[in-house]
Amino acid sequence: MLIVYAHPEPTSLSGSLKDTMQAHLLASGHEVQVTDLYAQGWKASVDAGDFLGHDPRERLGVVSSSKRAYASNALTEDVVREQEKLRWADALILQFPLWWFTMPAILKGWIDRVYAYGFAYGVGEHSDTRWGDRYGEGQFAGKRAMLSVTAGGWADHYGPRGINGSIDDLLFPINHGVLYYPGFDVLPPFVVYRSDGLNAERFAVAEAELRKRMDGLWTQAPIPYRKQNAGDYEVPSMTLKPGLESVGARGFALHLDHRSVVAD
């Protein structure tokens, strides 16, 4: 299990939830590694220094440089270390506060630098009939992932008619684009609302719910995203074939395949 944690204050709610997860998983017999991005001073921005041997006189193409560096073992030591953690882990949890409707910049920087070409994207056959191994396939196929998020607003604010927009829509770019893209089975997120005013009683409830989620990491049904190469999308346009959407589905919901959900 790998927990990637992004908050500058160790005693924050995010920090406490990270500690709860780590302690419960260890007590349950799991091996756990934690990447504490702020504590280790993670470099968030991608630049030429990420690709060892890059000639500063040459134009930097991030994708092409990432591809060459990954293929020739020329990525920096901190990136390689995180990639090894991802290879080792059978599950990944990202623990972070929702800041301006997304993850903190330092966590986005972890994704930008660790998800190298050939490692998390650019995997598999790329042709007129296949757009690689992604969206349900790829490096992390068979592994699980989950977001653990703290949000300052009320749950209603993030509901289907809430002013902030649905939490499922807000987290779709991370769940579908960052986690499902390279192959993770993505579990529904764990979200603690009204995080700034959380008292001891509400924290105890959140802790209990989080421990239950940890116990179900390998048994809970993942979000039923459609697999890219399972026949639901037109090639090469990669648009959903007509008639496959659920009644009334629009936008992000088009990419949920409720046919695969088995009722209890």
UniProtKB/TrEMBL annotation:
Its EC number is 1.10.5.1. Keywords: Oxidoreductase. It is an enzyme of class 1 (oxidoreductase). It comes from the Bacteria. The keyword Cell wall biogenesis/degradation does not apply. SUPFAM superfamilies: Flavoproteins (SSF52218). Signal peptide: none annotated. The keyword Zinc-finger does not apply. Residues 2-212 form the Flavodoxin-like fold domain. Pfam families: Flavodoxin_2 (PF02525). GO terms for molecular function: dihydronicotinamide riboside quinone reductase activity; NAD(P)H dehydrogenase (quinone) activity. GO terms for cellular component: cytosol. InterPro entries: Flavodoxin_fold, Flavoprotein-like_sf, NAD(P)H_dehydrogenase_qn. Belongs to the NAD(P)H dehydrogenase (quinone) family. This is Ribosyldihydronicotinamide dehydrogenase (quinone). It comes from Lysobacter antibioticus. The lineage of its organism: Bacteria, Pseudomonadati, Pseudomonadota, Gammaproteobacteria, Lysobacterales. The gene is nqo2.
